[in-house]
Amino acid sequence: MTYATALLPQLIEAIADAINQNAGEVTALDQAIGDGDHVVNLQRGIHALMEQRHELVLLDWVAAWQKIGMTLMSTVGGASGSLLGTLFVAMAKAGKGQILDAAGFAAIFNQGVESMKQRGKSDAGEKTMLDVLVPVANYLQASAKADIALAGVLAAVQEVALAGVESTRDMVATKGRASFLEARTLGHIDAGAKTSQLIICAICPVLSASPA
Ligand code: ADP
Ligand code: MG
Fold first, then answer.
1. Does residue 75 register a pLDDT over 80?
2. Residue whose CA is closest, atom 23 of ligand 1?
3. How many domains does the chain have?
4. Under 8 Å between Cβ of 92 and 109
5. What are 95-109's pLDDT values in tens digits?
């Protein structure tokens, strides 16, 4: 993968559209087992990235991920702000001097997700955004090893993300605010998993349409 950071404005705009279009649905999810602020938190961060999008294109990926991470940490707030911020800052750290081919990106993304786990003292299976991000990280690493063509990877990643969201329905939350409700979280989809999937499903078509 050798996309230029020139794609960032388009990526950020696509993410903003996806989150805005699904804001009502996600808020309802977060109201059911959280405090209902997740979309507003995220929109604050996306708005800040929209403002920075023309500066971000002047940076390389490592510097851009660092800046995105710092922006998300300082604007999003809530549990999701520090976790998403950690993802990008850790990707910047892991990405220094690395080649951004499929295997390189998969390893960098995986490092980012590993840092989120440490930050949140959490893992997949706890009804959080990690139930989307961990399977996606695993799939990216497996597909890089199997040398699957990019178009196929981008299509499959969206399926993996959707399955991840759906998997949270049958989980009892053991991390974050939802964990206070214990078994009453059964039957509900996690809001952070849903927004992670929306973001991934917004990014993939932009990448598919751009020459790598
Ligand atoms: P808060 O819960 O502080 O109000 P948000 O509403 O912005 O923050 O984000 C809630 C989302 O954050 C949850 O839906 C869940 O996906 C994710 N989350 C919360 N705690 C953790 C954790 N320890 N590890 C991973 N994800 C978490
Ligand atoms: Mg919340």
1. yes
2. 120
3. 1
4. no
5. 999 999 999 999 999
What pLDDT is recorded for position 2?
72
34 lines ligand 1 (CB under 6 A): yes
Burial 16-39 (b: 16+ CB within 10 A, else e): bebbeebbeebbebbebbbeebbb
Q: Tokens 């840092």 map to which residue?
A: 115
Share of the chain above pLDDT 90, in %: 97
- For residue 51, give the CATH number of its domain: 1.25.40.340
Containing structural domain, residue 120: 5-209
Q: Is 69 in the pocket of ligand 1 (CB under 6 A)?
A: no
Give, for 12, the enclosing helix (H) or strand (E): helix 8-21
Ligand 1 touching residue 177 (CB < 6 A): yes
Question: What pLDDT does 201 receive?
Answer: 98
- 35 pocket-lining for ligand 1 (C-beta < 6 Å): yes
